[in-house]
Amino acid sequence: MNKNFYITTPIYYPSAKPHMGHAYSSIIADFFARAKKIQGFNVFFLTGTDEHGLKIQRAAEKKGMEPKKFCDEISVTFKDLSKTLNLTNNDFIRTTEKRHFKSVQNLWNILEKKNEIYLSKYSGWYSVSDEAFYSDDEIETIDSLKKSKSSGSLVEWVEEESYFFKLSKWQKPLLKFYKDNPKFILPESRKNEVISFVSSGLKDLSVSRKSFSWGINVPSNNEHVIYVWLDALTNYLSALNYPDTNNDLYKNFWPASLHLIGKDILRFHAIYWPAFLLAADIPLPERIYGHGWILSGEEKMSKSKGNILDPIEIIKKYGLDPLRYYLIKEVSFGNDGNISQKKLENCINSDLANNYGNLCQRVIAFNEKNLNLQIPDKINFKDIDIKILNDFNLNYQNLLKYLDNQDINSYINYIVERLFASNKYFNDEEPWKKKDDIIRLNTIMYVSLELIRKITILLYPIIPETSLKVLKIFKISEKKINLESIKNNNFLELGQKINKLNILFEKIVSND
């Protein structure tokens, strides 16, 4: 089995500071990166910023700045966000880097040599905000303004000389590829959306602009800049030092295992990107996953609507791990979800403080009082003990399937079920009433500690900082976390000393 895993976030458009939608994509990508690492995979995790296009040029002009300097300043905030979110990304790419220019122009040259690009004239609707072209049936008029039906963004009529990519040529090959690779696009609803769009007919795609200059020049014609999406999508190759296909990064990690994106950029990733790659004889990524939006109320967050939620402020108030847990558990992955202070506080209290935190604190406190912070050295499992421990072994393959299929909801639901079962086990077995039966007391304590260890390993990709605090009880370092070890019921060393544990999550008292 290939033990390399390459995961990417969308590269973010730095026309404004990061918001919760950016944080969500990055946290989900980090979840999968960490999950694969503890499965023993060699992981390459990429994020970055998409810094070209008319939208950036106009934003810079509005501030009276050169586009590059404007991008330098905004890109730093996205880099800083990666640190704030405790991401494990290996690289942060900017499309203004020389390595990226080299990759993009090489791809363009290949497409041109293969006669996949031709010069003509573009006339049609263009959204600067989306950096996307729209047909007449994708446009509506609202209050005398022309807008995209899908995004609500303003569009403007554009007429200019342009290079075109022969997208129409790739309609049938794309449909065949989707059929032969049924899990190339997930979730299913997104795949159906893409197939429907491609089946309705593809038109050749304008892949250059002449009316502005902020971008990568067409190698054979300096009057044109390369369309921002052909530029941006190539970042996934640039980070692997393409066009050098003999280097270790490219050989180990291309094709990408998972492009994680928001549903609003599905067309670019699931239609344009594979068509470019097919045309250039470059292997296609294994999967595109289009997740939903994080909503503010019932609307998508955007600078123009003034409804942006700042992840930094929420982290300052509640902590990073609670936000990560909330976004991963309470947002049904693949669908839209919203965040509210009330829901976040309820989640912290019910799941993190009362369920997980309570289990850890009760068991360790009882151990400290009765066993002097030591793993019991004499135990004797009963059927009830073996049954609750074996559940992890019985469901191990299911857990791997959840991760392989990006089924986050089932993965975290399993953890929550195990937490409830573990708390119930500790309550029902009543070790405080077994002080005259030291073997039974020891066994209940050993089983409870093993349950904490197993659950904490499963929680590590979700709440890494907290998980490491708990695993420190057993002297398990981050490098030694191994997902397969949850199948082992006798992992803990008999008689070993364990460490104390401070309160993991403070309960939030509402002012309501």
Q: What do we call the CATH topology of the domain at 341-487?
A: Isoleucyl-tRNA Synthetase, Domain 1
Q: Considering the protein shown, what is the CATH homologous superfamily of the domain at 341-487?
A: Isoleucyl-tRNA Synthetase, Domain 1
Helix content: 40-55%
What's the count of strands?
18
Describe the fold and architecture:
By secondary structure, the chain is an alpha/beta fold. The protein has a domain at 341-487: Isoleucyl-tRNA Synthetase, Domain 1 (Orthogonal Bundle), CATH 1.10.730. It is 46% helix and 15% strand. The chain has 18 helices and 18 strands. The protein has helices at residues 20-37, 54-62, 67-84, 98-113, 171-180, 188-199, 228-233, 235-238, 248-253, 266-279, 311-318, 320-330, 341-371, 383-394, 396-404, 408-429, 438-459, 464-471; strands at 4-8, 42-49, 91-94, 117-127, 132-134, 139-142, 145-148, 156-165, 185-186, 205-206, 208-209, 217-218, 221-226, 258-262, 288-291, 294-296, 299-300, 337-338. A six-stranded parallel sheet has the order 3-2-1-14-15-9, sandwiched between helices. Strand 14 (258-262), helix 10 (266-279) and strand 15 (288-291) form a beta-alpha-beta unit. Helix 17 (438-459) packs antiparallel against helix 18 (464-471). The longest helix has 31 residues, at 341-371. The protein is elongated. The N and C termini lie far apart (54 Å).
